[in-house]
Amino acid sequence: MTSILRRNQSLKSILRTPKDPFFTKPTLKPYKNPQTSSTYFLPRVLNQIYFSTHSSKFPEYEMPTVTWGVIQGRKEKLVSRVIICDYLKSIGIIPDELEELELPSTVEVMRERVEFLQKIGLTVDDINEYPLMLGCSVRKNIIPVLSYLEKIGIQKSRLGEFVKNYPQCLHASVVVELVPVIKFLRGLDVEKQDIGYVLMKYPELLGFKLEGTMSTSVAYLVSIGVNPRDVGPMVTQYPYFLGMRVGTTIKPLVDYLVSLGLPKKILARMLEKRAYLLGYDLEETVKPNVNCLLSFGIRKDALPSVIAQYPQIIGLPLKAKLSSQQYFFNLKLKIDPDGFARIIEKMPQIVSLHQHVIMKPVEFLLGRGFSADDVAKMIVKCPQLVALQVGLMKNSYYFFKNDMGRPMNELVDFPDYFTYSLESRIKPRYQRLQSKGIRCSLAWFLNCSDQRFEERLYGDYIEPESSGPSFYMGGKLELPGNEIVSEEEESDDETLYRRTVSL
């Protein structure tokens, strides 16, 4: 009994004066926020819980000293939010959109975020355009994204510009969202060194889902004849088509151009070279321009040839350009509206040619003794005259006059003479004719291929002359003096495109 009493007394003494620090109550130290008059009692241990961010993972950026701040209760969070909002207002940032956003617990963390964004080139106005970027942790969000963007080819000096254009990228996960998009672009044959250029042009690509718009737009273009190997260069030239919906944007435009008589395969070649055609608005631009061409006298069956030769014509401010050029041709060159329409059919690039450029060849011809009516006839027959270099025209003219000794009216009948190379075609062929004593027209020995010229040179008769190659809506090429080229003889539509179109 005595032993039991002694044990109880010793246990009570231990409980009254504990010596083990485990049983010791934490002493509360008053904490007063320097920016408010309120005083809070926080445990000494919790008051020292700050999270260090000293890391060497991204050495190119200076790491922040804190990430999120201290562990707080509900009341402390409300006070901190007020303090942070007051700070943002003091530097010109409007915090209204941050009401539903979780903010850091201390103003120091927010100040560090603002200073970091300003360091890469953003201004207060840029942040106000998208204040949600202030919800991104410098260490966990901003630095990993910027490091990856720099790695794939965006210059460090332009990272601020990139974030300004597409600040949503700061919320993205590098591994889950950004890397798959880059792999998709590389899979389309976009060159590695062009990735940064593509993203600077169209940064919204980083926010697209791979199985959505991007995949369907590429699949549709390949289905109409676009070479898969050309998709990469198309993306580099005009990446915006990856964000276009097939059903509402791309397919209606393609269907309309095909309805005008343009073969799909030729349209595919056009898109490979000029992917920006997909960006022309069908209702606002393309259809009004086609109607404008018809109103200026271009024949409907000539529209496919006009568009194939000069695809940009469907996206220009066409009415103003056609009106100006038609007036100029009528006033200066004495070419009536019907003649002007024939010129546009043969060389639609005329609509964008400067008038002082047009006048140089015209003045040269007038100076050689051609009448104004003859010059007008020559231009209607061969509009390419107005785009030639005067120096080359001089050489060809003097060879025609001095060496060939032919009458001037032959040039009026065949003005295409000036479009052929003097050294590689005119001189060699003329010398061959002279050696055989053959007398023929300019068109007979110039307007044909080398093989056809050899056949004519050794033939027993001289073929009747005919017009040059013509564009057919069915997609085949009719050569002068020959039947329509069959698909077996010339199955590549690129050959048709090269012969009928000069992009």
Automatic annotation (TrEMBL):
Record-linked Gene3D superfamilies: Transcription termination factor 3, mitochondrial
Matches recorded under SMART domains: Mterf (SM00733)
Keywords: Chloroplast, Plastid, Transcription, Transcription regulation, Transcription termination, Transit peptide
GO cellular component: chloroplast
Organism (species): Nicotiana tabacum
One annotated GO biological process: RNA splicing
Statement: the UniProt record of this protein carries the keyword Transcription regulation: yes
Protein's UniProt name: Transcription termination factor MTERF4, chloroplastic
Protein encoded by which gene: LOC107786540
Family: Belongs to the mTERF family.
Subcellular location: Plastid, Chloroplast
